[in-house]
Amino acid sequence: MRGTLLAIGFLAVATATKNPNCTDGLYMIVARGTGEPAAASKDGLYPENSGSPGYLAQLIAAQIKDSSIMGVEYAATLNDYVQSENDGANVMLQLANEYHSSCPGSKMALLGYSQGAQLVSDVLCGGAGGDFNHNAPLSPDVVKNSGQCLLFFRESAQADLDLVIAAVLFGDPTHIANTTYDRGTSVHNGIFSRTNNTVCKKYTDRMTSWCDKGDRFCDAGHVDAVHGLYLQRYNSTMVQYVVERWQNLTAFSATATVTSTSSRSSGGSTSTKTASPTNSESSRPSTGIASGLTLPGWPLVLLSCGIFFI
């Protein structure tokens, strides 16, 4: 009987009732820029409290089925900017934590423009320092680890463990030039450049910050018009970045083959339960990882799942 695998925790997760507030697609939390209206556009280009990042999110949602968009409700004002930004960062952090708590394992993206981009960087990397909030960043467990029962992961991308799959910032006043996640033509730091980007560097694989030379806010430049040109210049590139992240990280999460053996003897019977994949990974040869368990060529990770060998 020692060869028998009882995947109790796995079965419990598989049969759990889905929360109706959870999306099967990408859940995008977006923060509008300073002065952008809170009301949804009458032409449907962006939802409530989302502004120009909401327009970008709509383009992404058009390519990722069953996605949803949540705008951050905050002042987004230049008057009392510090309080506005601090409040907005707190709201965005709460939205991310609440969605993760209600929908563990669901995938999120954070999008922000101008002051909204500063919200995103504060939530993902921690407070910018100076007069701004010094909040701790979003927990790494929320960014990369669902904390629920997972049997395996793909070693190169850890697809099943990635939750905040992308962060897209443009015109961020806390921008730091020449970082690994920097995009655009900027060569200078922003007017409120971050005092520490240690955590940001850990998310180079999922974070991009667009800033162009001359931007008054993210590049400390003197060309006002630059700050409003990011979607005109880069919207297709930004959309492609998020969609490709989604496609790459969800392409390998559909299959697991569990084999239980009732006896260690050569005459023992074997039964197999298989969840069929919906992608090209089905062509991978099965490789025995451990006694009683077969997976399609991936290393095994046993987390706290209530799985026992008896």
From TrEMBL:
Signal peptide (residue range): 1-16
Pfam families, A to Z: Cutinase
Organism expressing this protein natively: Penicillium cosmopolitanum
Residue ranges the record marks as coiled coil: none
Entry-linked PANTHER family: CUTINASE 4, CUTINASE RV1984C-RELATED-RELATED
Region of interest called Disordered, as start-end residue ranges on this chain: 260-288
Lineage, highest ranks first: Eukaryota, Fungi, Dikarya, Ascomycota, Pezizomycotina
UniProt-recorded name of the protein: Cutinase
Compositional bias ranges of the Polar residues kind: 279-288
Keywords: Disulfide bond, Hydrolase, Signal
